[in-house]
Design a protein that fits this description.
- This protein is mainly α.
- The protein contains 12 helices and no strands.
- The chain is globular and about 50 Å long.
- The model has no long low-confidence stretch (mean pLDDT about 85).
């Protein structure tokens, strides 16, 4: 997934944002569709709640567009770290949206994670740019996407996977002729667009496989490795390295998420 983000950052500097987003969703669809068909048969797409599926997918599309748009202006590592504000928003909205009262540990982790975001977006930091608002919107849309996933927990998981890619692929494919008119794509950029689709498809495919073999509480800490990879890509590809305070903020965000995941895993064992 960090490879996808780095490729997107390379592309959005010179090409229309929606073209880059289209490549990401088209790749995901090519991987998810045959997987869902194999797991659930030809009726994998059937659902009793198509409207909620489409809304959930539109939220993911909006989050992707906002994130890729922000990457045009912001460092990769810090930008990736700020999007991990989504779990904190989920905790804040879980009671009014789902009727689920957050535990004390979740509230503490959310407050600590928010403190890390404040350290990142401090006066004088490389992230103090109007585009950071796009990252905050990204986190909000990602949180709503997760909450709607929770609301659809009784649905066929293969349908969830399929619809999460469908809206972006179909909607942006309709716009593709207009997007191609406004840009010139050389061989290098065509390769990067193809790579972004492959990275998106493989990333979601590996994620699907992981969650089918292990509980979410066990896997959640590994998602924060994305901050490490984003830092490495930012250094190698863009010459961007977080300063001391930014590194502290990123560490606080990651520690709050990892700590909560470990606590959740311990709680599940005791239940």
């Amino acid at each position: 997934m960090s490879s996808l983000d780095a490729t997107a950052k390379l592309l959005v500097r010179d090409h229309p944002l929606l073209l880059v987003v289209w490549a990401r969703y088209a790749g995901q669809t090519l991987v998810v569709t045959p997987y869902a068909w194999h797991r659930a048969g030809p009726g994998f797409w059937r659902t009793q709640r198509p409207g909620m599926h489409l809304l959930r997918s539109a939220l993911l599309l909006a989050a992707t567009a906002c994130f890729f748009g922000a990457l045009r202006y912001l460092p990769l590592a810090e930008g990736s770290a700020i999007t991990f504000m989504a779990p904190m928003i989920v905790v804040a909205l879980s009671w009014p949206v789902l009727g689920e009262r957050p535990t004390r540990a979740r509230m503490i982790a959310s407050i600590a994670g928010f403190a890390g975001i404040v350290i990142l977006v401090r006066p004088g930091s490389a992230v103090l740019h109007p585009a950071v608002l796009l990252l905050l919107v990204t986190a909000l849309f990602n949180a709503l996407y997760q909450l709607y996933t929770r609301k659809l927990r009784t649905e066929n998981p293969q349908a969830l996977l399929f619809y999460s890619a469908l809206v972006g692929t179909v909607g942006l494919t309709l716009l593709l002729p207009f997007l191609l008119e406004s840009t010139t794509i050389g061989l290098r950029d065509a390769g990067l667009l193809l790579a972004s689709g492959v990275f998106a498809g493989l990333g979601h495919g590996f994620m699907i496989s992981a969650y089918s073999h292990a509980p979410a509480a066990l896997l959640a800490p590994f998602t924060y490795l994305q901050i490490v990879w984003a830092t490495l890509f930012g250094l190698v590809l863009f010459g961007q390295y977080p300063d001391g305070w930014s590194a502290v903020g990123m560490a606080v965000v990651a520690a709050s998420g990892i700590g909560l995941a470990l606590w959740e895993r311990r709680r599940m064992r005791l239940m």
